[in-house]
Amino acid sequence: MGLIDFIKNVGANLFGKGEDEVTTITNLLNTELPNQITNLQVKFDDGVVDLYGQAESQAAKEKAVLLAGNIKGVSKVNDVYLTAPPAVEETTYYEVKSGDSLSKIAKAFYGNAMKYPVIFEANREVIKDPNLIYPGQKLRIPKIS
Fold it and tell me: Which CATH number fits domain 92-141: 3.40.50.2300, 3.40.30.10, 3.40.640.10, 3.10.350.10?
C-alpha cells in the first residue's frame, strides 16, 4: 500500500501517557494483534509511523496500519517495510464522515444496513463498540459475496 494518510488531530488519544510514541504503538499492535506480526519494529517521526516486520496475513497488515493511523497525532503510516502474503482481493478503505454509522456505511457498500456486523468484525481491533465511530476514522470495508 505504501504511505497511507490519516487525519492527525482525530483518533484515540494514546500519546503522552507515560510512554513514548514508539512504545505506545508497539504495545498497541502487540496487544490487539497478538502473534500476528513477527519482528515488529515501529519508528515515529513528526506524525509519520513506519512499520517493519512480517504480518501473518494481508488482513493483519491492514489492521496494523489502521491501529497505528487511528491514533491522535498520527498523520501517515508507511507500511512498505511490513510484509504480508499477497492479498486475494484488494481491500477498500473508508473514512468516517459526520453522521455516519456502521449501518449507514453497510447500506452504502452492501445495499443492506443489517450487514454492519461484517464491517464491525473486520475492524474489531479499531472499533470496540459498533455504536462508537468518529469522523476521520478509517475503516476496512471487506468484500462480501
Answer: 3.10.350.10
